[in-house]
Write a structure and sequence with these properties.
About 35% of the residues lie in helices and about 15% in strands. It contains seven helices and six strands; from the N terminus they run βαβαβαβαβαβαα. The chain starts with 5 loop residues before the first strand and ends in a 5-residue tail after the last helix. The chain binds NADP nicotinamide-adenine-dinucleotide phosphate (NAP). NADP nicotinamide-adenine-dinucleotide phosphate binds near residues 40, 42, 121 and 172.
């Protein structure tokens, strides 16, 4: 029997982390029989204005609180330690350096990212190194996305799995808006994360 591990890397800003992320990660872990999922909070995501993102230590603290009760969930905080913009290809390399390089790696994130993936640094190399798991929200018109997945498979031999996750109806943007408008966020994210948001007066 092979001892090659299967590991998920769950990339995202997590501003804040919510049950949609957690349900997705747990479903992917169980469906693909992964040995672990490492949450990889973005430091300064390449295509984003860093000023609008919550402080990285606060986002990291919320991820830690959210995953504490799942023994399969861990954190890879490589991107948070870097001052400069971070690119997934470099993160994957750093992760491989850290673990057994024989592991099969799955990179899990929002499926929207697949639409612009040809703008990612060294995306062709990335397709060789990882299996992409793109998660969509229910009700999204996926025709263009499915076309894009075919295109990426045909042109780059990309390995891509597409999952639709009803729980992703929850979104970080919606949670931030609710807080700003004084509406409840109960049941959208773990209680411990909600308490942390209240204590630190985030998203007001
Ligand atoms: P984001 O703005 O946090 O999210 C974009 C959309 O995808 C949002 O709708 C978001 O929903 C959803 N999403 C994000 N992470 C998700 C996850 N793990 N599971 C399910 N849905 C998720 O996206 P981002 O952080 O900038 O980028 C996502 C990942 O791609 C990060 O790891 C980032 O470093 C990487 N990336 C790499 C490059 C590159 O290497 N050149 C370029 C762009 C992005 P919520 O808001 O509800 O989370």
């Amino acid at each position: 029997m092979s001892d090659t591990k299967k590991i998920g890397l769950m990339g995202g800003t997590f501003d804040p982390i919510h049950y949609g992320h957690l349900v997705l990660a747990e479903q992917v872990r169980s469906n693909l029989d992964l040995d672990a999922i490492y949450f990889v909070p973005s430091g300064r995501p390449p295509h984003k204005d860093g000023n609008k993102i919550t402080d990285k230590n606060l986002r990291l603290a919320m991820v830690k609180l959210a995953i504490a009760d799942n023994e399969y969930f861990k954190i890879f905080d490589y991107e948070l330690k870097k001052e400069e913009k971070t690119f997934t290809v470099d993160t994957v390399k750093a992760f491989k350096d850290m673990i057994d390089s024989k592991a099969v790696l799955y990179f899990i994130t929002g499926a929207d990212q697949l639409m612009k993936i040809e703008s990612w640094k060294e995306y062709e190399k990335l397709f060789e190194e990882i299996i992409f798991v793109g998660a969509s929200r229910p009700g999204n018109d996926d025709v263009q996305l499915i076309q894009q997945i075919h295109y990426l498979k045909d042109n780059y031999h990309a390995r891509i799995l597409h999952v639709e996750v009803p729980a992703l109806a929850i979104s970080s943007t919606d949670i931030r808006n609710r807080i700003r408008e004084g509406n409840s966020i109960k049941y959208l994210l773990p209680d411990r994360v909600e308490q942390f948001i209240i204590e630190n007066k985030l998203y007001k």
